[in-house]
Amino acid sequence: MRLTPVLDVDALVDDPGTGIIVCCGSGGVGKTTTSAALALRAAERGRKVVVLTIDPARRLAQAMGIEQLDNTPRPVAGVRPRRGRSGGSLDAMMLDMKRTFDEVVEGQASPEKAKQILENPFYVALSTSFSGTQEYMAMEKLGQLHRQAQAEGTYDLIVVDTPPSRSALDFLDAPERLSGFLDGRLIRLLLVPAKGPARLMTAGFSVITGALTKILGGQMLRDVQTFVAALDTLFGSFRQRADKTFALLQTDQTAFVVVAAPEPDALREAAYFVDRLTDDAMPLAGLVVNRASPSARTELSAEAAIAAADTLEASDSSSLTAGLLRLHADRVRIIEREQHLRERFAASHPQVPTAVVPAMAGDVHDLDGLRAIGDSLAQQA
């Protein structure tokens, strides 16, 4: 007997009030494949969809028949309307976090100021390797796509595949962390020589800059100060944009789908994310448990199979049959373990709609594979 409500995927993607679907969860649980499958299903059911992925392995590009994804949405060929549906389309893109950061700077600063920022060595390091930059830029790109969709009507559904973070919570925390860094005390302190009169250059400040010079080196400190001075006019913009995107994620037009594997760590991370979404008043559509072991479809328990194998081996009977019985027992135990983990999650989160997707025989490498996943998700309801 099912303990939790069923995630109705078709109702989710068909709802015209749903404009954004965010697939989130820990790394390695199939977020990219789930995002692509949802996007394809929505497009074939008549929605104008763009899917934004952050996928180092670039599997999505291969599955969608696109030679290379980049920071620009590109049409996916081969979308087939479902019976009675028409007008759908699907574009796909892959986040380029540095290019997105560059676009923010270019859109907010004068050409001269933007050039000064983009060529600064500290900016290059910040835009490519600062902790949280990828997560922040994923949300920035989401904001850009949403504004474009609102202004031009290009899309009526945006599907976002969140970054493969160390923690699923990083996606929500990164905008505040990055904007807080850019608006922090140290950054403001570094602005003093560029903004303030000479009388502000106190002995105390000289001591601080002297210490920073020893730690960072004189050239790097000058690069940081030059960068900060050039970026000063954009500080408010960063925080404002982060706040707007965060607010967008809290609206009814957004739906979060938490993706997990039937493993303890992945479901624990999913539970953290569900709790966080609830605390932040963000709309949770449900949970997808991906790559679940198919049902054994037999009443032969693991214990009975082991006992039968022991009997066969003791009587010097067929070792092949005994081996098959032990393999069956192992499979049943895996299925029981996964079922126990799902039931434990459901017991602590009984109101979270859930879909369970069986593991496929091979890797998804084409649109038919994505359709199969979409069909499996929809068959839950």
From TrEMBL:
Name the Pfam families on file. ArsA_ATPase (PF02374)
Give the Gene Ontology MF terms in alphabetical order: ATP binding; ATP hydrolysis activity
This protein is called: Anion-transporting ATPase, ArsA/GET3 family
Q: Where is the ArsA/GET3 Anion-transporting ATPase-like domain?
A: 20-298
Concerning PANTHER family, the annotation shows:
ANION TRANSPORTER ATPASE-RELATED, ARSENICAL PUMP-DRIVING ATPASE ARSENITE-TRANSLOCATING ATPASE
